[in-house]
Write a structure and sequence with these properties.
By secondary structure, the protein is an alpha/beta fold. Helices cover about 35% and strands about 20% of the residues. It folds into 2 domains: about 200 residues, Thiamin diphosphate (ThDP)-binding fold, Pyr/PP domains (Rossmann fold, 3-Layer(aba) Sandwich); about 120 residues, Rossmann fold. Strand 2, helix 3 and strand 3 form a beta-alpha-beta unit. The longest helix has 15 residues.
């Protein structure tokens, strides 16, 4: 599998409803899932707490009703607390012709199913010469979740980007959570779908049925002095920083990658070559984070000056003062950008 192959698998949903509606991040995903389930009887969802609508309400419709009431327990399946069992069953279902959506509650718990994800789902298509495919979407909420401490606050997108065969998606807005989930369901490959825990209640305009292609970044803000690249919740922090920088006379271009793998190299390289400076910002720990891949690629292919900004290599603390040490805010982004501009 390569980036072009993955991008080409994204297709436009069959729904003709093009009205723009205001939905939360959670509702937008629930709408995408319900549309896909309406259109394709092979789409099923399984995981913990789905019967009550999901921990974050991501399996409830816009009226607040759990999707199980609409599709029944045979397609919205509550499972025991065993991540290895959930993912293992889903891999088998995918190979048998279904399109399962797995709910792992938070990415931290996905580590209990790492063999099924890395050695089974990711490698099957390659090992058997394409005879079988694993059209599996694994939802793994990422990021700091206020007062949830070290075992419920990790951002592990770089782990999964490192594994050949996996697609990695990180939506930052309600519209993208809708459109990228539709694309993930049609990709035909195993997708690590990472929604941020602190975005669920945030609202935005959504066009029902509008697919967002995998591997295509979004330029949130145009600028000429420096390029900011980010994804997931940190896009908001970068947008705030860009506003502050603009007040200082610095025009920052902000790119939301939207997908970590494949990532939109062309968009990032073109922007960095034009502005001459690149700052990659992510909530994940900076050491060995995916920002290093982006920075290295830009350094190899352009003359731009590059820098990274990520969390310190510490567990996320429970106490607010400790949790704040792991957060990357707009002030830190502004300071890092100013340092880069002086180089």
């Amino acid at each position: 599998m390569n980036a072009r192959d993955t991008q080409n698998t994204a297709v436009t949903a069959s729904h003709e409803d093009t009205r723009t509606v205001q939905l939360t991040y959670a509702q937008a995903a629930a709408l995408a899932l319900s549309q896909a389930m309406d259109a394709d009887p092979t789409v099923v969802a399984l995981g913990e707490d789905l019967g009550r609508g999901g921990v974050f309400g991501q399996y409830r419709d816009a009226a607040g009703q759990p999707l199980v009431q609409r599709f029944g327990p045979g397609r919205i399946v509550d499972t025991p607390i065993s991540e290895a069992t959930i993912v293992g069953a889903a891999v088998g279902m995918a190979l048998a012709g279904c399109k399962p959506v797995v709910e792992l509650r938070v990415v931290d718990f996905a580590l209990c199913a790492i063999d099924e994800i890395v050695n089974q789902a990711a490698k099957n298509r390659y090992m058997f010469g394409g005879q079988g495919r694993v059209p599996l979407v694994m939802r793994m909420p990422i990021g700091i979740w206020s007062a949830s401490a070290a075992q419920h606050s990790q951002s592990l997108e770089a782990w999964f980007a490192h594994i050949p065969g996996l697609v990695v998606v990180t939506p930052a807005t309600a519209a993208d959570n809708h459109g990228l989930l539709l694309a993930a369901l049609e990709s035909g490959d195993p997708v690590i779908y990472m929604e941020h825990k602190e975005l669920w209640g945030q609202s935005g305009p959504v066009t029902p049925g509008a697919v967002v292609p995998l591997g295509r970044a979004h330029t949130v803000r145009a600028g000429s002095d420096v390029t900011l690249v980010s994804w997931s919740r940190q896009v908001q922090a970068c947008a705030q920083a860009a506003e502050q920088l603009a007040a200082q006379g610095v025009q920052a271009e902000l790119i939301d990658l939207r997908t970590i793998w494949p990532w939109d190299r062309d968009a990032v390289l073109a922007s960095a070559a034009r502005t001459g400076r690149l700052l990659v910002v992510h909530e994940a720990i900076q050491v060995a984070g995916f920002g290093a891949e982006i920075a290295a690629t830009v350094a190899e292919h352009t003359g731009a000056k590059v820098a990274r900004l990520g969390a310190p290599r510490i567990p996320v603390g429970y106490a607010q003062v400790l949790e704040d040490e792991a957060r990357i805010g707009a002030g830190q982004i502004v300071a890092a950008t100013q340092q880069l501009l002086q180089r």
